[in-house]
Amino acid sequence: MVARLLGIDSGGTMTKVALFDDVGNEIACEHSPNRIQFPHAGWTERDPDGMWHAACEGIRAVLDKTGTSPGDIAAVTAVGYGAGLYFVDADGAVVRPGIGSTDTRSAETINTWDRTGLKSDLEAAIQQAVWAGQSLPILAWFAQHQPDVLKRTRHVLLCKDFLRLRLCGDISTDPTDAGCAGFADVAKGRYATDALIAAGLRDCIDKLPDIGASTEIAGHVTAEAAAQTGLLEGTPVCRGVYDVVACSLASGLTRADELSVVAGTFSINSRLYATPSLDPLPTLQVAYPTEGKYLATMAAATSASNLEWVCNTLLAAEADIARRNGRSIYEVCSDLVESAIDRDCGILFFPYVFGGPSGAPAGLLGVQAGSRLPDVLRAVFEGIVFAHCQDIGYLLGASGTRGIRRALLSGGPSRSPVWSQIFCDALNLPLAVANGSEFGAKGGAMCAAVAVGMQPDLTHAIAGMTRISRTHTPDPDRVEVLKARYRRFSEVGERLSAAWVPHTAPDCASSYVGASA
User: Domain Carbohydrate kinase FGGY N-terminal spans what residues (predicted)?
Assistant: First the structure.
């Protein structure tokens, strides 16, 4: 038997399935787009069973194209986006569509909590910010506005936990997802019962899943799941972690002097602390599953999902051509940006398609008759990087990047050398990209390796299953160019945000929870 590990990662836009060997090398991967539904302004939903079927197809495709025997799969782990919410009844059937982490229906609930002082009390109890896509206020919204949904619901789950339910019938969660959801006292590692009661959720407490260790075997692939996926019935299923933690593990994050930068649907920027970080209070904070550390994260929906919107909305024809030539539109975009990297360019892009500070929308500023597509795409790349820089500045506080020895980049932009270099130059930090391309799925596979005894713990898994495949060093000239452009981005963005305040309608609530929120 050749031991293989399977990781499933269902993020904001794609469900990925990746196969790894026992030392963390990525053998193959499959991608399926998640069909996102927008039934009302500010609502972001998906079909949970559609997501499960996408995972099933991905598993079958990976096994088929690699010729992997199902018996060679030592374990499988599902990873998913944090926050949002899934509702199932006592039989495990879906009650309603799942909620995405970019959903903003709970914005008015949070505004009410803020006016009454409850918001700050809740934040103190869960050691992180309260924000619209977080599970806690979403659940409170349902209790207030759709109590019938909760009457039909027996179990409230997070994304990865729903997938694991379908894989093995287990209903549980882990400390990272419970923390990201806003349901847990992160320092104590258990549900924040008093906070849940204060939020009006007393009747929902018994609907929350038990919390178990991230690296435990939670169950085994059922006969039904085996028939759907092609996996062997009885294959161990690990509980796993949510995607930010998975990407940090796969990037090799173990030290407090390293910065984890995950660029995906959200701009996710994290640092390790010995105790929970309370000043500044991060967007997200969870117990990191190595050596008793805590992962503090600033996050906002201002990252690579903005490029995806540009490609889907404005570059559909180019994407078609790229596909016919066996390339992705993202590779084409990287080539175009590289061709324009040394041109004088005054274009600024504000990556707020999911909403920015004060509800500001996305926008391009400074386009002229002589501007070309490569210039515009360069501005998109840079604007997304600048949004990361703003959140990193808030996360690190007055000390800035002093004491940070390097950044670890993962997510879609890490596959682009030119985009990675822009991150490196804008942060003015050495930057490293670990081996592989599917970091969320790999983090899940690393948890699986521990669960079945292939690694003694995640610290050893990081040492044995991650390697740096590419490094970037800041270019002094580009550092100065980007420093000036970032200053202008921040100044202009602040003025534009202020201008949008009176024009932001309640049903256009922003998912923005970044540094300027």
Answer: 6-248
